[in-house]
Protein backbone atom coordinates (compact mmCIF):
# COMPACT_ATOMS: atom_id res chain seq x y z
CA UNK A 1 0.00 0.00 0.00
CA UNK A 2 3.06 2.26 -0.22
CA UNK A 3 1.61 3.73 -3.42
CA UNK A 4 -1.74 4.61 -1.89
CA UNK A 5 -0.72 8.24 -1.39
CA UNK A 6 -0.08 8.58 -5.13
CA UNK A 7 -3.55 7.22 -5.82
CA UNK A 8 -5.00 9.90 -3.55
CA UNK A 9 -2.93 12.66 -5.18
CA UNK A 10 -4.12 11.38 -8.58
CA UNK A 11 -7.76 11.51 -7.46
CA UNK A 12 -7.17 15.08 -6.32
CA UNK A 13 -5.55 15.97 -9.66
CA UNK A 14 -8.41 14.40 -11.63
CA UNK A 15 -10.95 16.43 -9.69
CA UNK A 16 -8.96 19.67 -10.10
CA UNK A 17 -8.63 19.35 -13.88
CA UNK A 18 -12.30 18.40 -14.18
CA UNK A 19 -13.53 21.33 -12.12
CA UNK A 20 -11.07 23.69 -13.84
CA UNK A 21 -12.55 22.61 -17.21
CA UNK A 22 -9.00 21.94 -18.43
CA UNK A 23 -10.29 18.61 -19.74
CA UNK A 24 -12.69 20.40 -22.08
CA UNK A 25 -11.84 20.42 -25.78
CA UNK A 26 -13.45 23.85 -25.97
CA UNK A 27 -11.12 25.39 -23.39
CA UNK A 28 -8.09 24.28 -25.41
CA UNK A 29 -9.58 25.64 -28.63
CA UNK A 30 -10.43 28.93 -26.90
CA UNK A 31 -6.87 29.18 -25.55
CA UNK A 32 -5.31 28.76 -28.99
CA UNK A 33 -7.76 31.35 -30.31
CA UNK A 34 -6.62 33.78 -27.58
CA UNK A 35 -10.27 34.31 -26.68
CA UNK A 36 -10.08 33.63 -22.96
CA UNK A 37 -7.69 34.20 -20.09
CA UNK A 38 -8.84 31.03 -18.29
CA UNK A 39 -6.14 28.57 -19.43
CA UNK A 40 -3.39 31.20 -19.32
CA UNK A 41 -4.41 32.05 -15.77
CA UNK A 42 -4.27 28.40 -14.73
CA UNK A 43 -0.90 27.57 -16.30
CA UNK A 44 0.54 30.99 -15.42
CA UNK A 45 -0.42 30.88 -11.75
CA UNK A 46 0.74 27.26 -11.42
CA UNK A 47 4.12 28.14 -12.90
CA UNK A 48 4.48 31.33 -10.86
CA UNK A 49 3.86 29.43 -7.63
CA UNK A 50 6.08 26.65 -8.95
CA UNK A 51 8.97 29.07 -9.47
CA UNK A 52 8.65 30.29 -5.88
CA UNK A 53 8.42 26.69 -4.67
CA UNK A 54 11.61 25.66 -6.49
CA UNK A 55 13.44 28.56 -4.84
CA UNK A 56 12.32 27.25 -1.45
CA UNK A 57 13.62 23.80 -2.44
CA UNK A 58 16.99 25.28 -3.39
CA UNK A 59 17.28 27.17 -0.12
CA UNK A 60 16.36 23.97 1.72
CA UNK A 61 13.31 25.60 3.34
CA UNK A 62 11.04 22.89 1.90
CA UNK A 63 12.48 19.37 2.10
CA UNK A 64 11.03 16.03 1.13
CA UNK A 65 9.42 13.59 3.55
CA UNK A 66 12.82 12.06 4.35
CA UNK A 67 14.28 15.47 5.18
CA UNK A 68 16.45 15.46 2.06
CA UNK A 69 16.80 18.47 -0.23
CA UNK A 70 14.46 18.28 -3.24
CA UNK A 71 16.42 18.21 -6.51
CA UNK A 72 14.60 18.39 -9.81
CA UNK A 73 16.04 16.16 -12.56
CA UNK A 74 17.04 18.46 -15.46
CA UNK A 75 15.33 18.11 -18.83
CA UNK A 76 17.29 16.78 -21.80
CA UNK A 77 18.74 19.76 -23.63
CA UNK A 78 18.12 18.98 -27.30
CA UNK A 79 16.90 22.01 -29.19
CA UNK A 80 15.48 20.26 -32.25
CA UNK A 81 13.86 17.47 -30.25
CA UNK A 82 12.27 19.94 -27.82
CA UNK A 83 11.02 22.16 -30.64
CA UNK A 84 9.90 19.57 -33.21
CA UNK A 85 8.51 17.25 -30.57
CA UNK A 86 6.73 20.23 -29.05
CA UNK A 87 5.18 21.20 -32.39
CA UNK A 88 3.97 17.64 -33.04
CA UNK A 89 2.53 17.51 -29.52
CA UNK A 90 0.80 20.87 -30.02
CA UNK A 91 -0.85 19.71 -33.25
CA UNK A 92 -2.33 16.72 -31.44
CA UNK A 93 -3.24 18.67 -28.30
CA UNK A 94 -5.29 21.18 -30.30
CA UNK A 95 -6.93 18.48 -32.44
CA UNK A 96 -8.23 16.21 -29.66
CA UNK A 97 -8.21 18.92 -26.99
CA UNK A 98 -6.49 16.70 -24.46
CA UNK A 99 -2.95 16.26 -23.25
CA UNK A 100 -2.01 12.98 -21.50
CA UNK A 101 -3.41 13.84 -18.04
CA UNK A 102 -6.89 14.86 -19.24
CA UNK A 103 -7.08 11.75 -21.47
CA UNK A 104 -7.18 9.50 -18.42
CA UNK A 105 -9.50 11.81 -16.51
CA UNK A 106 -11.97 11.81 -19.42
CA UNK A 107 -11.80 8.01 -19.44
CA UNK A 108 -12.92 8.09 -15.83
CA UNK A 109 -15.81 10.35 -16.83
CA UNK A 110 -17.01 7.61 -19.16
CA UNK A 111 -15.98 9.16 -22.47
CA UNK A 112 -15.60 6.08 -24.65
CA UNK A 113 -14.00 7.91 -27.60
CA UNK A 114 -11.03 8.94 -25.49
CA UNK A 115 -9.96 5.28 -25.31
CA UNK A 116 -9.10 5.54 -29.02
CA UNK A 117 -7.07 8.68 -28.31
CA UNK A 118 -5.16 6.87 -25.54
CA UNK A 119 -4.44 3.92 -27.86
CA UNK A 120 -3.15 6.46 -30.39
CA UNK A 121 -0.95 8.12 -27.77
CA UNK A 122 0.57 4.80 -26.64
CA UNK A 123 1.20 3.90 -30.29
CA UNK A 124 2.81 7.30 -30.79
CA UNK A 125 5.20 6.73 -27.89
CA UNK A 126 5.98 3.25 -29.24
CA UNK A 127 6.67 4.46 -32.79
CA UNK A 128 8.81 7.33 -31.51
CA UNK A 129 11.17 4.94 -29.75
CA UNK A 130 11.48 2.82 -32.89
CA UNK A 131 12.51 5.70 -35.14
CA UNK A 132 14.16 8.11 -32.70
CA UNK A 133 17.65 7.40 -34.06
CA UNK A 134 16.56 8.75 -37.43
CA UNK A 135 15.11 11.99 -36.04
CA UNK A 136 16.95 15.30 -35.56
CA UNK A 137 17.88 15.72 -31.93
CA UNK B 1 -18.47 25.28 0.62
CA UNK B 2 -20.31 22.51 -1.24
CA UNK B 3 -21.83 25.16 -3.50
CA UNK B 4 -18.36 26.36 -4.37
CA UNK B 5 -17.15 22.84 -5.18
CA UNK B 6 -20.11 22.21 -7.47
CA UNK B 7 -19.43 25.36 -9.49
CA UNK B 8 -16.65 25.46 -12.13
CA UNK B 9 -13.42 26.48 -10.38
CA UNK B 10 -11.86 29.79 -11.42
CA UNK B 11 -8.27 29.86 -12.70
CA UNK B 12 -6.93 31.36 -9.48
CA UNK B 13 -8.10 28.31 -7.56
CA UNK B 14 -7.20 25.72 -10.18
CA UNK B 15 -3.68 26.95 -11.00
CA UNK B 16 -2.46 27.01 -7.38
CA UNK B 17 -4.14 23.61 -6.81
CA UNK B 18 -2.10 22.14 -9.69
CA UNK B 19 1.07 23.64 -8.16
CA UNK B 20 0.09 21.94 -4.90
CA UNK B 21 -0.12 18.56 -6.69
CA UNK B 22 3.40 19.15 -8.02
CA UNK B 23 4.57 19.99 -4.49
CA UNK B 24 3.01 16.85 -3.00
CA UNK B 25 4.77 14.66 -5.58
CA UNK B 26 8.11 16.36 -4.91
CA UNK B 27 7.55 15.95 -1.19
CA UNK B 28 7.20 12.20 -1.73
CA UNK B 29 10.36 12.11 -3.84
CA UNK B 30 8.74 12.01 -7.29
CA UNK B 31 8.62 14.35 -10.27
CA UNK B 32 5.28 15.28 -11.83
CA UNK B 33 5.07 14.05 -15.44
CA UNK B 34 2.20 12.20 -17.07
CA UNK B 35 3.45 11.28 -20.54
CA UNK B 36 6.16 8.87 -19.34
CA UNK B 37 3.26 6.60 -18.42
CA UNK B 38 2.66 6.10 -22.14
CA UNK B 39 6.04 4.34 -22.33
CA UNK B 40 5.28 2.29 -19.24
CA UNK B 41 2.03 1.18 -20.91
CA UNK B 42 4.09 0.13 -23.96
CA UNK B 43 6.33 -1.94 -21.69
CA UNK B 44 3.38 -3.62 -19.98
CA UNK B 45 1.81 -4.25 -23.39
CA UNK B 46 4.86 -6.27 -24.42
CA UNK B 47 6.63 -3.68 -26.59
CA UNK B 48 9.96 -5.06 -25.33
CA UNK B 49 9.64 -7.85 -27.90
CA UNK B 50 9.99 -5.26 -30.66
CA UNK B 51 12.37 -2.80 -29.06
CA UNK B 52 14.73 -3.45 -26.17
CA UNK B 53 14.15 0.12 -24.93
CA UNK B 54 10.86 -1.11 -23.50
CA UNK B 55 12.51 -3.93 -21.57
CA UNK B 56 12.96 -1.51 -18.71
CA UNK B 57 11.64 -2.34 -15.29
CA UNK B 58 8.20 -0.76 -15.32
CA UNK B 59 7.84 -1.26 -11.56
CA UNK B 60 10.05 1.80 -10.99
CA UNK B 61 7.25 3.78 -12.59
CA UNK B 62 4.46 1.98 -10.73
CA UNK B 63 3.90 5.02 -8.52
CA UNK B 64 3.09 7.05 -11.65
CA UNK B 65 0.66 4.43 -12.98
CA UNK B 66 -1.00 4.52 -9.58
CA UNK B 67 -1.23 8.30 -9.90
CA UNK B 68 -2.89 7.87 -13.32
CA UNK B 69 -5.32 5.32 -11.90
CA UNK B 70 -6.16 7.98 -9.32
CA UNK B 71 -6.89 10.56 -12.03
CA UNK B 72 -9.35 8.12 -13.63
CA UNK B 73 -11.10 7.77 -10.28
CA UNK B 74 -10.98 11.55 -9.82
CA UNK B 75 -12.66 12.01 -13.20
CA UNK B 76 -15.36 9.54 -12.20
CA UNK B 77 -15.96 11.21 -8.84
CA UNK B 78 -16.18 14.69 -10.35
CA UNK B 79 -18.55 13.45 -13.05
CA UNK B 80 -20.83 11.57 -10.64
CA UNK B 81 -20.96 13.85 -7.65
CA UNK B 82 -19.16 17.15 -8.06
CA UNK B 83 -20.93 18.80 -10.98
CA UNK B 84 -24.42 20.05 -11.57
CA UNK B 85 -23.92 20.37 -15.33
CA UNK B 86 -21.18 20.62 -17.94
CA UNK B 87 -22.00 24.07 -19.29
CA UNK B 88 -18.85 26.09 -19.95
CA UNK B 89 -18.88 29.88 -20.00
CA UNK B 90 -17.07 30.20 -23.32
CA UNK B 91 -16.35 33.46 -25.05
CA UNK B 92 -19.34 34.11 -27.35
CA UNK B 93 -16.88 34.72 -30.18
CA UNK B 94 -15.50 31.18 -29.67
CA UNK B 95 -19.02 29.76 -29.88
CA UNK B 96 -19.62 31.72 -33.10
CA UNK B 97 -16.27 30.69 -34.63
CA UNK B 98 -17.01 27.02 -33.91
CA UNK B 99 -20.51 27.30 -35.32
CA UNK B 100 -19.00 28.73 -38.51
CA UNK B 101 -16.85 25.61 -38.99
CA UNK B 102 -19.70 23.23 -38.21
CA UNK B 103 -19.27 22.55 -34.49
CA UNK B 104 -22.61 23.43 -32.92
CA UNK B 105 -23.72 24.06 -29.32
CA UNK B 106 -20.18 24.80 -28.17
CA UNK B 107 -19.90 24.93 -24.40
CA UNK B 108 -23.14 23.09 -23.64
CA UNK B 109 -21.04 20.06 -22.69
CA UNK B 110 -17.33 19.54 -21.99
CA UNK B 111 -16.71 17.91 -25.38
CA UNK B 112 -18.00 18.48 -28.92
CA UNK B 113 -20.19 15.60 -30.06
CA UNK B 114 -18.80 16.17 -33.56
CA UNK B 115 -15.57 14.56 -32.31
CA UNK B 116 -16.46 12.45 -29.27
CA UNK B 117 -19.94 11.03 -29.86
CA UNK B 118 -20.60 7.33 -30.41
CA UNK B 119 -21.50 8.18 -34.02
CA UNK B 120 -18.12 9.68 -34.65
CA UNK B 121 -16.29 6.65 -33.26
CA UNK B 122 -18.31 4.50 -35.63
CA UNK B 123 -17.17 6.48 -38.66
CA UNK B 124 -13.83 6.11 -40.42
CA UNK B 125 -13.09 9.84 -40.32
CA UNK B 126 -14.06 10.03 -36.66
CA UNK B 127 -11.75 7.19 -35.63
CA UNK B 128 -8.95 8.60 -37.76
CA UNK B 129 -9.15 12.01 -36.06
CA UNK B 130 -9.08 10.47 -32.56
CA UNK B 131 -6.31 8.03 -33.38
CA UNK B 132 -4.18 10.60 -35.20
CA UNK B 133 -4.64 13.25 -32.51
CA UNK B 134 -3.62 10.78 -29.83
CA UNK B 135 -0.69 9.57 -31.91
CA UNK B 136 0.64 13.12 -32.34
CA UNK B 137 0.32 13.78 -28.60
CA UNK B 138 2.14 10.57 -27.62
CA UNK B 139 4.82 10.83 -30.29
CA UNK B 140 5.40 14.54 -29.75
CA UNK B 141 5.48 14.33 -25.97
CA UNK B 142 8.15 11.61 -25.92
CA UNK B 143 10.16 13.32 -28.70
CA UNK B 144 10.04 16.63 -26.81
CA UNK B 145 10.86 14.90 -23.53
CA UNK B 146 7.64 15.78 -21.74
CA UNK B 147 4.11 17.12 -21.99
CA UNK B 148 2.12 19.86 -20.31
CA UNK B 149 2.91 18.56 -16.82
CA UNK B 150 6.62 17.76 -17.24
CA UNK B 151 7.57 20.70 -19.45
CA UNK B 152 4.97 23.46 -19.01
CA UNK B 153 4.48 23.08 -15.26
CA UNK B 154 7.60 21.44 -13.75
CA UNK B 155 10.15 22.52 -16.38
CA UNK B 156 9.06 26.16 -16.51
CA UNK B 157 8.91 26.28 -12.69
CA UNK B 158 12.53 25.16 -12.70
CA UNK B 159 13.33 27.81 -15.38
CA UNK B 160 14.56 25.17 -17.82
CA UNK B 161 15.44 26.31 -21.34
CA UNK B 162 14.48 22.97 -22.98
CA UNK B 163 11.02 23.32 -21.43
CA UNK B 164 10.60 26.86 -22.69
CA UNK B 165 11.50 25.68 -26.21
CA UNK B 166 9.09 22.75 -25.91
CA UNK B 167 6.25 25.00 -24.72
CA UNK B 168 6.90 27.39 -27.61
CA UNK B 169 6.65 24.30 -29.83
CA UNK B 170 3.34 23.31 -28.17
CA UNK B 171 2.00 26.71 -29.15
CA UNK B 172 3.33 26.68 -32.71
CA UNK B 173 1.68 23.29 -33.27
CA UNK B 174 -1.51 24.27 -31.46
CA UNK B 175 -1.89 27.51 -33.39
CA UNK B 176 -1.34 25.78 -36.74
CA UNK B 177 -3.94 23.14 -35.86
CA UNK B 178 -6.51 25.60 -34.48
CA UNK B 179 -6.23 28.37 -37.07
CA UNK B 180 -5.30 26.44 -40.23
CA UNK B 181 -6.04 22.72 -40.02
CA UNK B 182 -9.21 22.43 -37.89
CA UNK B 183 -11.27 24.60 -40.32
CA UNK B 184 -10.10 22.26 -43.10
CA UNK B 185 -10.79 19.04 -41.17
CA UNK B 186 -14.35 19.89 -40.08
TrEMBL record, chain A:
The chain crosses the membrane at residues 36-57, 78-98, 104-128. Pfam families: Sulf_transp. This is YeeE/YedE family protein. Keywords: Membrane, Transmembrane, Transmembrane helix.
Amino acid sequence: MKYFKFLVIGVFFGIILSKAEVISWYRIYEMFKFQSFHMYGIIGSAVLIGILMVQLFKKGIIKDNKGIQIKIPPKKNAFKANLFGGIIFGLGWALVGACPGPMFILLGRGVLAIAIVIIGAVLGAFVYHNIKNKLPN
Amino acid sequence: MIDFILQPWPWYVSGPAIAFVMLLLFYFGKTFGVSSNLETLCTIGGAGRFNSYFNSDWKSNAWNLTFIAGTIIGGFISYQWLSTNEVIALNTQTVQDLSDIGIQNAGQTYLPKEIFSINSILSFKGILILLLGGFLVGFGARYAGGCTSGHAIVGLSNLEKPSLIAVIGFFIGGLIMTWVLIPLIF
